[in-house]
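Reading a protein record of the kind used here takes only a little practice. Each token is a code from a learned vocabulary of local backbone shapes. With that in mind, consider the following protein and its fold in token form:
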Amino acid sequence: MSMTTPPGWYPDPAAPAVERWWDGTAWTGHTRPAGGAGPAAAVVPPGRFGGRGTRIAVAALVVAAVVAAAVLLRPGGDRAPDAQGPPASAAPSAPAPAPPAPRTPDAGPSPAPSEDGSVLADQLNGIALPLPKGWEKAEPGIDQAPTMVTTGDHQCPGGTRLCRPGRVLSRTLASTAPTHREMAEQDVAEAAEQLYGEDVLGNKPYGGVTAHRVVAARQAVVAGRTGYLVRWRVTTGKGPGGYVQSLVFPSPGGVGQPVAVRFAFDAGPDGPPLSAMDEITRGIRPLDGSTGGGVGSSIAPGG
């Protein structure tokens, strides 16, 4: 009884690294890499080497080898997988991606007015006062009012302590006066006593206020609100005296009570120029940057 090799995948005689499909009669053009599913080696049918079945199988294998060699050698023919290029592990690696360009740091938000070194911020009343050249922020006094002073100091005329020739502070004004003008007229007297009279410890660094005269009294548009200012020239018991101003206007921060900005400039060569009072007044702005109201606004004057 003769036996034939059953159909299946067998090592390609011309390319051991490839398996080729044997259809039971002849090799086909179908190949796959060695090691795939199916038989790992050719199945040799049992029988005597000299038998007729063996001779037929060997003849078929020889014919298939010749056909396979012709296919492999002709242009465009099937090629074994190992002839198509180096294995994946040997392929040149892709170039490493370029490192990301350094990010340009964002400018970031503008500093809050309280952190801005060019202004004195009054958070409670919603205003920012400009710091002129030669001025600096100071620790708030006993009433915790935001304060700025001139950078230079000198010995107080009435004692051994040091005094600042220029002082400006902002505070909420508690007043029952009906108009801003009357509020300013009352407040300037208190400001003169606070800044040139007797301090909280009972000392009189300027010898106290002995007289005064009004040198300015007018409406003023401040931070988009119409207010009023009164300026005194004060005479003190010791030293050249000075100038005191009270500036009263509605709070742009929505606080029901008005704002009072108090100024004290020493007279004489050590004091700052009076023009700085007007410079600071013109430079007062709301903390939110808005400037509604003022000249041409529908907001009526408060007094």
